[in-house]
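Colleagues,

For the teaching module next term, I've prepared a clean inverse folding example: a structure given as tokens, and then the sequence designed for it. I'd like students to try predicting residues themselves before seeing the answer, so please don't circulate the second half yet.
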């Protein structure tokens, strides 16, 4: 059996006296889309932050390609992991192109330029705004820029936190189609936190349901929507 690309075993995280994650086991294979679901405060974003080094684990282990993963934020890109946090955290005063350049700081100049060109081919709407301040983009365009910047380093796995937050339904549909295409054509794996349940399950291979910091269900994506577990953890199906 092939070793998982990323594996969390018995991972726990505490914030002060609050147990944010409790004995969590999650794994994702090469080229797989895995979605994390659950109510607010369930620990979904904390899973991504623990991998990215922003939420230090109190117990358990994380492995990357079969080896121990020490979660240090500035080393993520070199390992093949890209983290796109919630809230479209782009540099709004910088131009679109300057934001993209920051995504390729670890690459030599020629590789960075080529990678930006390749990524822009997937996000043609950004090509017309390259010299505009990123803060002048629409919400959907800012989310595209955040994802595009995360792709510059050629990741094998993207940690993507609530990409549809605050976006119009037609923009959400286009965004999830884009994620699906990146997975199909480039074999990029995604660990996705998302409240737009139907959209996420439509493109995901597997799903984990979290409640109160613990995994309460793990099923193929096509089995989750019709299961009672969604009602039990009070998910809002949209």
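(Answer key — instructors only)
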């Amino acid at each position: 059996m092939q070793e998982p690309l990323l594996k969390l075993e018995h991972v726990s995280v505490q914030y002060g006296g609050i147990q944010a994650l409790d004995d969590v086991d999650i794994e994702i294979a090469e080229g797989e889309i895995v979605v994390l679901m659950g109510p607010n405060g369930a620990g979904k974003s904390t899973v991504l932050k623990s991998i990215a080094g922003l939420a230090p684990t109190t117990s358990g282990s994380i492995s990357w390609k079969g080896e121990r993963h020490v979660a240090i934020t500035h080393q993520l890109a070199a390992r093949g992991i890209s983290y796109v946090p919630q809230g479209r955290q782009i540099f709004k005063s910088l131009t679109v192109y300057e934001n993209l350049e920051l995504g390729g700081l670890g690459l030599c100049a020629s590789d960075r330029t080529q990678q930006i060109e390749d990524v822009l081919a997937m996000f043609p709407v950004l090509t017309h705004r390259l010299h505009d301040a990123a803060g002048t983009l629409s919400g959907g365009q800012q989310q595209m820029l955040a994802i595009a910047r995360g792709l510059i380093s050629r990741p094998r796995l993207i940690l993507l936190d609530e990409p549809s937050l605050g976006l119009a339904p037609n923009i959400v549909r286009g965004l999830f189609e884009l994620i699906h295409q990146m997975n199909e054509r480039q074999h990029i794996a995604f660990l996705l936190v998302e409240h737009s349940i139907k959209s996420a399950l439509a493109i995901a291979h597997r799903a984990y349901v979290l409640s109160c910091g613990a995994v309460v269900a793990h099923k193929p994506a096509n089995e989750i929507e019709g299961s009672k577990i969604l009602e039990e953890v009070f998910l809002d199906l949209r």
